[in-house]
Design goal:
By secondary structure, the protein is an alpha+beta fold. It folds into 3 domains: 59 residues, RNA-binding S4 domain (Structural Genomics Hypothetical 15.5 Kd Protein In mrcA-pckA Intergenic Region, Chain A); 85 residues, Pseudouridine synthase, CATH 3.30.2350.10; 134 residues, Pseudouridine synthase, CATH 3.30.2350.10. Helix content is 23%, strand content 27%. About 2% of the residues have low confidence.
Length: 316
């Protein structure tokens, strides 16, 4: 079998390229091919730690081509995706509430089908989500469409140069602004709790959220939340620990409602062209109709008022 390395394979270890390109083979079989000299780069034997370059020809003796052909109809492959931005090696979508990112019928496979129809061929690169949103959470979700895009977005996350904002409907009347700073711990039931570290509470992670009230009425509040850390169930657990569980979030003490909790990743702000070339200055995800209808009903506001309030977020 003969393979040709492309741009998204550049400078990757040969064994990692082969693990993706030959995904029908067990890892032990791939190492055996390398160990017995049945893998050649441009006609020369190479070990697993060899750094592949774009344009290299990889020959594997005794293997048939197992690569899957790309999807042909990109528009059809993208049915069901709400694309907010595409460029700079990333794809940003507006994730629907109730949809999983991974697994059967998840967004991951749908996005891969959509991107593969327009991406150059690659032996080792596969598009994938670059951060996570819970199943019931809607809004801004970023996928990689190139290796460089994945690396750059991950760098910005690690350096905390991205600003992530959420809208949430919580129980109780929350006024003004607060800074929520906690140590969070996960239990065996996949539940996150704010704890006072005592040495016996397990692995704890710091969580920081800035919360601001946008509207309050009838025992409910609409909050704008900026998360400065990315912990599992961070907003849900921190809000609940302060007596303001998300409405419908039964797992964290909220009152049940027919549609489930209301949490929407509304805005992602990038640091600017100098630090994030190719990325947009920001990405705004309009809340889904159910979120808007619930907010109008709870807070007795018009759609124009809600739209004006959300537009104001972009001016801050």
């Amino acid at each position: 079998m003969e393979l040709r390395a492309a741009e998204n394979d550049d400078n990757r270890r040969l064994d990692r390229v082969l693990r993706k390109a030959l995904d029908g083979l067990a890892l032990s079989a791939i190492h055996r091919l390398l160990r017995t000299g049945k893998v050649r780069i441009n006609g020369k034997k190479a070990g697993g730690d060899f750094r592949v370059r774009a344009g290299d020809t990889i020959t594997v003796e005794g293997c048939e081509n197992t690569q899957k052909p790309p999807a042909r109809d990109r528009q059809k492959a993208g049915d069901g995706l709400s694309v907010l931005y595409e460029g700079g090696g990333i794809l940003i979508i507006n994730k629907p509430s109730g949809t999983a990112v991974h697994g059967e019928n998840g967004l991951d496979s749908l996005v891969q089908s959509y991107l593969e129809a327009g991406l150059p061929p690659s032996l080792s690169f596969r598009a994938g989500p670059l951060h996570r949103l819970d199943v019931p959470t809607s809004g801004v979700l970023v996928f990689s469409s190139s290796l460089n895009g994945a690396r750059e977005f991950t760098r910005l996350l690690k350096e905390r140069k991205l600003k992530k904002y959420y809208l949430a409907v919580v129980q109780g009347e929350f006024e003004g602004s607060e800074t929520w700073e906690d140590m969070l711990v996960r239990d065996r039931k996949n539940r996150t709790s704010a704890v006072v570290p005592d040495g016996d509470s397990g692995t704890t992670r710091a969580a920081l959220t800035l919360a601001r009230s946008l509207m309050t009425a009838g025992g409910f509040s609409l909050l704008l939340l900026e998360i400065r850390s990315g912990r599992t169930h961070q907003i849900r657990s921190q809000a609940a620990s302060r007596g303001h569980p998300l409405w419908g979030d039964v797992k964290y003490g909220g009152t049940r409602n027919s549609g489930g909790l209301l949490l929407h990743a509304v805005l992602l702000v990038f640091p600017g062209e100098d630090e994030a070339p190719g990325f947009p200055p920001y990405c705004f995800a309009p809340p889904p109709p159910r979120f808007l209808e619930t907010a109008k009903r709870l807070f007795h506001c018009s759609e124009d008022e809600l739209s004006g309030m959300l537009a104001g977020l972009l001016q801050e």
